[in-house]
Amino acid sequence: MDIELFEEFSEKCSKELPNEIDKILQNVKGEKACAISFITTDDFYGFYLAWNCSTDIDEYYAWENGSSPDFLYQPLVDIVEAVEELDFFESSDEKWNFAEKLLFILEKNIKEIPEKIFKKNGFKREDILFFATMGDGDYIKEMLEVSAKMFNSKKTLEAYGLIK
């Protein structure tokens, strides 16, 4: 599977993700920490953004704060629909490879969020834990663990108890 397939998704993330993170951080001003998750379905039909101001991420699926920005939904749906040779309803090496490419795109775009967005909302980048996973499906734990390590500093992972 070619990384160019994800180009439009990456471009839209690059343009829109900083604004979306800014909105979330404006809502949680005054908090000491915030976890922000990108939650997808088992068949990768878009992402739902959810957040919580706790260091406990075990019940991310029950977080009440959330949104479904179009830039995280439709471009990903278009990719899934274009990949006819992959059965997104069955676990496979190819499906995990798709997940890894998607995580790589998110990592790039999360790391490109300007520092000024964190600062103007009273945070350091290390105060925010980013991760991606599935609401249900084959790779819930794997995506969470891999993405948390990809998206965050060691200091952030330690603060959230993800590494000791």
Summarize the structure.
The protein is α+β, with helices and mostly antiparallel strands and 164 residues long. It has helices at 7-27, 70-82, 93-111, 115-120, 140-151, 154-159, and strands at 34-40, 47-52, 65-67, 128-134.
In words, what does this structure look like?
There is one protein chain. By secondary structure, the chain is of the alpha+beta class. Helix content is 47%, strand content 14%. The protein contains six helices and four strands, in the order H-E-E-E-H-H-H-E-H-H. It has a four-stranded mixed sheet with strand order 3-2-1-4. Strand 1 and strand 2 form a beta hairpin. Helix 1 packs antiparallel against helix 2, helix 1 crosses helix 3 and helix 3 runs parallel beside helix 5. 29% of the residues are buried.
Write the layout of secondary structure elements.
Blueprint: H1 7-27, E1 34-40, E2 47-52, E3 65-67, H2 70-82, H3 93-111, H4 115-120, E4 128-134, H5 140-151, H6 154-159
Helix pairs in contact: 1-2, 1-3, 3-5
Q: Which regions are unreliable across 5 or more consecutive residues at pLDDT < 50? A: none
* SS field, number of helical segments: 6
Beta content comes to: 5-15%
Distance between the termini: 35 Å
Task: Report on the biggest sheet.
Answer: 4 strands, mixed
> Helix coverage percent of residues?
40-55%
Overall 3D form: globular
* CA radius of gyration: 15 Å
- What sequence of helices (H) and strands (E) makes up the elements? HEEEHHHEHH
Structural class: alpha+beta
Give the total of beta strands. 4
Output the strand order for the largest sheet.
3-2-1-4
